[in-house]
Automatic annotation (TrEMBL):
<dbReference type="Pfam" id="PF00850">
    <property type="entry name" value="Hist_deacetyl"/>
</dbReference>
<protein>
    <recommendedName>
        <fullName>Histone deacetylase domain-containing protein</fullName>
    </recommendedName>
</protein>
<feature type="domain" description="Histone deacetylase">
    <location>
        <begin position="1"/>
        <end position="69"/>
    </location>
</feature>
<dbReference type="InterPro" id="IPR023801">
    <property type="entry name" value="His_deacetylse_dom"/>
</dbReference>
<dbReference type="InterPro" id="IPR037138">
    <property type="entry name" value="His_deacetylse_dom_sf"/>
</dbReference>
<dbReference type="InterPro" id="IPR023696">
    <property type="entry name" value="Ureohydrolase_dom_sf"/>
</dbReference>
Amino acid sequence: MEKHNPDLVFFQAGVDALLEDRLGRLALTRAGLQRRNNMVFDYVLHKSDAGIVVCMGGGYADPITKSVDAHADVYIDANLAIARHREKTEELKATVILCCEFDERTQSVVPFI
């Protein structure tokens, strides 16, 4: 990223890399995906001035709740990364766009369709 200095980063935060995913076959744990999320968020927020767009993708675990939990982790990790960044700086340099919304009816985070 330092070489190209982008204004905006798209993070396709797929969860088909989970061990339980029958299509991804990468065998990462939920903790491994959370580590990936934090590496991306912390790098963009702390070492660049780029904004970040976070999009959901993939997720075919059996049981499907494994994928749902990993998708939720992406947005929870984004929120925690923003909080960590704000603790270190007075302002948030980057723009974070999460491709989801809060559904008041179900009280849950859902992707834009």
